[in-house]
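Continuing the batch. This is chain 6 of the set; chains 1 through 5 are on the previous pages. Same settings as before, nothing changed between runs. Recording input and output for traceability.
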Amino acid sequence: MPNLDRFVIDDGRHLPQMTIDEDASTAAGAARFRATCSCGRMSHRPAGTREQALGAHLAHVNTKAGPPRNPTWLPFGARVVILAAAMLMLWGLCYATGQVVVHNQGLTGAAAMTLRGGSHLAGLVLAFGLMVAARRSIAPTRA
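Output for chain 6:
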């Protein structure tokens, strides 16, 4: 018999809850297990052995678990374009801020180059940080 305890569902929504079915146990003369799921949407299956109950729960999890659904209101290409535009605006805002500070402070030479370079680098870091933060919303994948 396979050991079904080794399967772990880690999404936190589908945890097996094992109970002993008193009516079926009395009729069969042995303990009959029934599995339910913590999500509350598992179909009722007849009681059986512990392995059969866990197998029924795994079948339920395999039909219910999966990656989050893509937003249907916006296609994938549009989400990528919006992300690219947001990244460009974030970088541009940082770069423009560096230019304005250099101009208003009257900086020249190495100080001006350092400030412009720092603002440029900060904009790139923030833009790519936004990309990493939004990756699950843009293209969800199965873990």
